[in-house]
Amino acid sequence: MALTHYACEHCGGWILWFDTREPVACPNCTDVRNALPEEDFTYLRIQDAPARYSTQWREVLPGLWDFWTEPQLGLGSHGWLIQREKGNIAFEAAPFYSEDARKQLERLGGVKILGASHPHGYGALWQLQEFFDPELIIHREDLQHTKAFRVNHVIDDHYVIDGDYEMLRLGGHYEGQTALYAAKHRILFLGDALKIDFDGQGNTVALSCHKGYHYSIPLSRGELEHYREVFRRFDFQHVCTPFELGRGVDQQLALALVNYLMENGIHTRAVPMKELQAYV
Ligand SMILES: [Zn+2]
Ligand SMILES: [Zn+2]
């Protein structure tokens, strides 16, 4: 029986399933860290995606490209592409890559190494794998969520790509949540270890962190302590989540949130910048 790819229209996660019938349920949405759709599951077949979604891109910092879809599909993940002489690195993925986006990725040099922080960043990782057949890196604890693509490099808690790119497990939100540090850009790709709230001008106004966002499930103390160890290790100036670039969300601010929560009790509510400044 033939298989095809379906995207859950609620979260945007892709599911490899039988061509003749839709998936029973979306494994992302039935997980305790996510919300269920209000009515029922609805799915987008890959062959119907080009008519409904376009893929957009822009260079957000020199050599760092952002890919996303219009309109938003599911949670609206963003895929990052880092141009690199030894072969480009893609981290996280947009929910859908159009034919134009594939050509743009080719013009930028394709994808040699592909990874994601955790399932909310997987997007259409499987399409990037079909286009470029990259080394596809996932932490061993998150392998259970990767049915829509084929992982060919399973990593433990620490993996050095080269002197400029290093991966380190954060855990917490997802057991295998793993950060990528890009020393050249001084960016920490940290999954959903931080949630950033912006004002209308794109300025950061608050930070928070959670194990599960929709049900306001907080991290345990040990998980937050582990975030602190990872944040201390890298001298970052910006962060990238699977949803946005947090310009100026640096190591000091990230550590300030952890310290604030350690002292005031661990919760999932947004902590305004002016309160965080006292902990920098
Ligand atoms: Zn879903
Ligand atoms: Zn997440």
Overview of the structural elements:
This protein has 280 residues and is an alpha+beta fold. It has a domain at 158-280. The chain has helices spanning 27-30, 49-52, 99-107, 125-132, 221-233, 251-264, 273-277, and strands at residues 3-8, 14-18, 43-45, 54-61, 64-70, 79-82, 89-91, 113-115, 135-139, 153-155, 158-162, 165-169, 178-182, 187-189, 195-198, 204-208, 238-240, 245-246, 271-272. A hairpin with a 5-residue loop joins strand 1 (3-8) and strand 2. Helix 5 runs antiparallel to helix 6. The longest helix is centred in the C-terminal third of the chain and has 14 residues, at 251-264. The structure holds zinc ion (ZN) (2 copies). One zinc ion binds at residues 8, 10-11, 13, 26, 28-29.
- Number of helical regions: 7
Number of strands: 19
| Spatial ordering of strands, largest sheet | 4-5-6-7-8-9-10
Overall pLDDT: 97
Strand content: 25-35%
Spatial extent as radius of gyration: 18 Å
User: Runs with pLDDT <50, length 5+?
Assistant: none
Present as ligands are: zinc ion
Summary tags:
alpha+beta, seven-stranded mixed sheet, six-stranded mixed sheet, 7 helices, 20% helix, binds zinc ion
